[in-house]
Design brief:
Number of helices: 19
CATH architecture of the largest domain: 3-Layer(aba) Sandwich
Radius of gyration: 29 Å
Oligomer: single chain
Largest sheet: 6 strands, mixed
Strand content: 15-25%
CATH superfamily of the largest domain: Periplasmic binding protein-like II
Helix content: 25-40%
CATH class of the largest domain: Alpha Beta
Distance between the termini: 39 Å
Number of domains: 5
Structural class: alpha/beta
Shape: globular
CATH topology of the largest domain: D-Maltodextrin-Binding Protein, domain 2
Strand order of the largest sheet: 19-24-23-20-21-22
């Protein structure tokens, strides 16, 4: 009953004049509505406290609105009848009590912070979670939401066998907590899901659908706003007769981020896989793909006239753009027909130059990506990037890349390979484009270390990097050392701790830095104990010297060398991330400090910041701790804060 009152009240509020619902009030203050009960106020203050920590430049004013019958011991199941009539920006509710569907005119999302410890009712969706509701179209709240939701990942399952799903698609399945899937796919693909992942089958069998397309789209929107790590698994390639646009357009309309991982279509499997290759030198230089059925199963027009209206894709046409577009215009294609050139499709260098048949060639020339059409170079473009031309109405459509916290920006990851995978995943989670260019590599020196063969003689091993953990474990595997005989482990840095935990190991002590180091050592280590400190050749022996001063017997061993990695080509990027001084020095030596001019720079605390400062490069985001998660998370927060200021 009370849930119904919630919906009725919100419906009345959202049916106000458009001037109220669509108004924008540039401000650095958020007005927050909540019920006036002590329970609701406590929950809202908790939310505001957390948001103030994330957005210190913004203020939050709480407006409790009383309702007859409010009692502290009864959680509020509806909002007061005048929510959003007081020029409020958003309202805070227990997530479990928000109506489904939410009333028209409102949008919402769940926060990741759990609350309501006094609630002893049976578990339900949203139990303990907190929901925020706001007017549809409020760009500030949509931008704020991008910190708390993850992109919906559309994955092409491939045609038939699970092996035709791509490596990226499989990785997305392994990381999700909810998979909404079609029927036409190899069911063994679902074995890749985590054991606790939820599965929802929305497939069509024998002409019968378990869910209508509208219901499927609503499922996606609902779970995306709950912050689920959602994979939408579609048969074949979702962009070919897969109704992908209906689902992505619904997400775009609400400003919810997503990304698409193409799959191997039945078009590829049935032709390339069988030998009926659609392009064969001397036989066929192209092909036409068209559906033979319309909505409802009716036969479609496949006449020459119908085929002539289809979009056309030209391969290897970088230098032939002017000739191609001119020929199409001579065949009565309108000069205003949308056209696009896609350079380096599917890579982190992908660039799209768009226009019409009338101006695409000149736009491509202005981009600097294509050289003279009369040149003798064998390269397709001046940059050596492959290019496809797409001509037809479809070239006028584009996915929005600016919906995540990082707004589709290219993020240069200079970390070593050891950190690239987690960094790439984090950037994708926040809606950025990872540009992986390791500026350094670590080379193990295991064969030189006699100390590693005699680990039992030590009381402690000190590890200060995740790669040191990897090197140690490789050595133990190579020498078939029994892990039960390991000395106690003293580690520094959250990344090192996390790496140990992924291997099923726990640190015996955490080595704090600064003033906390002395306390940590005195509490855990005794004078006279033997310590093996494992490090890189560039780390320095300062920590070992300090431990010796505290009465410990320390062997300082270089476990691996740090070497620069060269990159002849300079990629495009908007943001650069650094973990240490070696990566900074490597990039500057290769590309010069001017390469970072006009770029946003983020760095781990410590040596990376010192090296950037020495080079005269300003740091926009200095991470609070030495970990990929902290650095990229704080970068995302920085970008959202900037976007909010722009909106204000």
């Amino acid at each position: 009953m009370r849930r119904a009152l919630f919906g009725a009240a919100m419906w009345r509020l959202c049916s106000l004049a458009n001037t109220v619902i669509c108004m924008t009030r540039p401000s650095t203050t958020f007005k927050v509505g909540t019920r006036a009960s002590n329970l609701a106020l406590a929950q809202t203050r908790h939310v505001v406290h957390r948001l103030c920590g994330l957005l210190p430049r913004w203020t939050f004013e709480i407006f409790p609105l009383a309702e007859p019958g409010d009692q502290d011991r009864v959680p509020g199941l509806e909002s007061p009848a005048d929510f959003f009539t007081h020029d409020l920006d958003f309202a805070v509710h227990p997530a479990r009590d928000m109506p489904d569907p939410i009333p028209a005119g409102l949008d919402w999302f769940w926060l990741p912070w759990r609350d309501d410890p006094c609630d002893d009712r049976p578990t339900s969706p949203g139990q303990g979670a907190i929901g925020l509701s706001f007017r549809i179209g409020d760009r500030r709240l949509v931008r704020l939401r991008s910190l708390f939701v993850r992109p919906v990942v559309f994955v092409g399952a491939g045609a038939g066998a699970a092996g035709l799903c791509t490596a990226d698609g499989l990785a997305a399945l392994k990381a999700c907590d909810l998979c909404i899937h079609d029927a036409l796919l190899d069911s063994s693909l679902l074995a890749a899901l985590p054991a606790n992942a939820e599965r929802i089958d929305v497939g069509k069998r024998a002409g019968h659908s378990l869910h209508t397309q509208t219901e499927t789209t609503e499922l996606i929107l609902r779970h995306a706003r709950r912050g689920r790590r959602l994979v939408r698994l579609k048969g074949g390639d979702p962009g070919l007769f897969g109704r992908l646009a209906e689902e992505t357009e619904a997400l775009e309309a609400l400003g919810l981020p997503f990304r698409v991982i193409p799959g191997v279509s039945s078009l590829n499997a049935s032709t390339t896989g069988s030998g009926m290759m659609l392009t064969r030198r001397g036989v066929s230089q192209g092909f036409c793909a068209i559906t033979a059925r319309m909505a409802g199963g009716k036969m479609t027009d496949v006449s020459a006239s119908a085929r002539s209206r289809l979009p056309v894709v030209f391969f290897m046409a970088g230098r032939a753009a002017a000739s191609v577009t001119e020929q199409l215009r001579r065949e009565n294609w309108p000069a205003t027909t949308p056209a696009a050139a896609v350079f380096a499709a599917g890579t982190d260098e992908e660039t799209i130059v768009d226009g019409t048949l009338a101006n695409l060639a000149s736009r491509m020339a202005d981009s600097g990506l294509v050289g003279s059409t009369t040149g003798q170079s064998e390269r397709e473009t001046s940059t050596g990037l492959p290019v496809l031309l797409i001509c037809g109405d479809v070239a006028g459509f584009r996915f929005r890349r600016d919906l995540g916290a990082l707004r589709g920006k290219r993020v240069l990851l200079t970390f070593s390979e050891a950190l690239q995978e987690s960094a790439r995943r984090q950037v994708l989670d926040y809606g950025g484009i990872p540009v992986s260019r390791p500026m350094i590599r670590f080379v193990p020196c295991l064969e030189e270390q006699s100390e590693l063969r005699d680990l039992r003689s030590y009381d402690w091993v000190v590890l200060t990097s995740s790669f040191a953990v990897d090197c140690l474990m490789k050595s133990l595997c190579r020498t078939k050392t029994d892990l039960r005989g390991l000395p106690r482990l003293l580690v520094s840095g959250p990344g090192t701790m996390a790496r140990l935990e992924t291997l099923g190991l726990q640190a015996d002590a955490y080595l704090a830095t600064g003033s906390g180091l002395l306390e940590c050592v005195s509490r855990n280590l005794r004078p006279g104990e033997r310590v093996l400190r494992l490090r890189s050749n560039l780390a320095g022996a300062g920590l070992s010297d300090l431990l010796r001063e505290l009465g410990l017997r320390v062997d300082d061993v270089v476990l691996y060398r740090t070497e620069p990695v060269g990159h002849e080509h300079k990629p495009r990027f908007d943001i650069a991330l650094f973990a240490g001084d070696s990566a900074v020095e490597s990039l500057i030596a290769q590309w010069g400090p001017e390469r970072l001019e006009g770029k946003l720079v983020a760095a781990f605390p410590g040596s990376a910041c010192a090296a950037l400062a020495k080079a005269g490069i300003s740091i926009d985001v200095k991470a609070s701790e030495r970990s990929v998660e902290a650095c990229i998370g704080e970068l995302a927060l920085y970008e959202v804060s900037r976007a909010l200021q722009e909106e204000a």
